[in-house]
Amino acid sequence: MGALSHIRVLDLSRVLAGPWCAQNLADLGADVIKVERPGTGDDTRHWGPPFAKDANGKETEESAYFICINRNKRSITVDIAKPEGQELIRQLAEESDVVIENYKVGDLAKYGLDYESLKKVKSDLVYCSITGFGQTGPYAHRPGYDFIIQGMGGFMSVTGEAHDFEGASPQKSGVAIADIFTGMYASTAILAAIVHRDHTGEGQYIDMSLLDTQIAVMANVSSAYLTSGEVPKRWGNASPIIVPYQTFPTSDGWMIVGAGNDGQFRHFVTAGGEAHLADNPLYVSNPLRVEHRKQLIPLLEQMTRKKTKGEWIALLEKAKVPCGPINDFKEVFENEQVIHRGVQIEAPHPTVGSMKLVASPMRLSKTPTEVRMAPPTLGQHTEEILHERLKLDDKTIDALRSKGII
User: How are beta strands 204-209 and 126-131 bridged, if at all?
Assistant: First the structure.
């Protein structure tokens, strides 16, 4: 039994930030009902290729994107644009502890499904809204997309090739970090609200913004600007304050070296047969190496190109110099540490057969996470939920289906 096995979540969200939040809660044991549009479902069901293949190698309708954010949930299809559908959602909300939604500001109020409406039927409801810019302010009604938020929130201004590199340009992250971090923060906020409810009996409203989150997770970069007033620059794969702390080419690929102190720098260059560099007056301390990085880095790159990635990793691990390879995803999932930790898991699925998934990284000793269900097919649990939660009989459910409500 997961730590949240007593919690019921009604997930009205789609795409990434909201579903990511709901999946975290589901992994911890919460009973999550994912509400989707009849016929089409969550947009990400159609975002592909790739799509999962069945046991015969035939492509299914299960997109890799949808798969990564919807395990441990039950799917129900409801048309919330129709009064009967709205009433179903109100009844489900009354039976829930948490509602998560990421509609545009004000959209759900039109259907009577906003917080002010639903708290009338469930006074201690925890209601979490996720939008690009939050519920207030001059940008509140703008649509928010992760890529745009990465730009507006400062992330792209410090990501990409170094500012003085010819042809350099800002770059987005390889994954939608604003969405993912907002989902993570939303999970934490919901758990805090549940604790407050359990102590006081009060529900509350949570207003999550992708832009707020993106700025918050800039961490020391935001702090550096607020402290110094100097606008941070792009440094590519290098550090503005530690040298050498970056990627280096080898004879067969790339590696990362993080020599965070003078002793590690000495061990690094000694392992490469260039110990004299540690005694050079220009490089004997980190501040001096930062000052003279343009002279030092080419010398280090000449050194690192003389050995393979594997040879370097072995040498530097023995010398206790922080280092690591830059793996592609084949190498990631074949890594002995990744295999040992059981990061790749499998779960039975009605169309795919055995579906490959990535395990939750939350490792709790008393209430461990578990995969109870693979990501659901569209509307897979509609009848089950209506029978179980709302006590509807088959005749009523058939009538709802014939009207296109479910």
Answer: parallel
Tokens of 145: 């997309």
- Nearest Cα to 344, choosing from 73, 74, 68? 68
Nearest C-alpha neighbor of 324 from the set 337, 338, 333, 314: 314
The Cβ of residue 403 has, within 10 Å, a number of other Cβ atoms equal to 12
What topology does CATH give the domain 8-217+340-402?
A: Rossmann fold (3.40.50)
Strands 59-63 and 73-77: unpaired
Record the pTM.
Answer: 0.91
Q: Which are the catalytic amino acids?
A: 179
Q: 236 near 268, Cβ under 8 Å? A: no
Q: What is the pLDDT of residues 27-81, one digit of tens each?
A: 999 999 999 999 999 999 999 999 999 988 999 999 999 999 999 999 999 999 9
Locate 294 and state its tokens.
Answer: 């343009």
User: From residue 49, how far is each of 52, 53, 60, 71, 164 by CA, in Å?
Assistant: 9, 11, 11, 19, 37
For domain 245-328, give the CATH number: 3.30.1540.10
Residue ranges of the domains in the chain?
8-217+340-402, 245-328
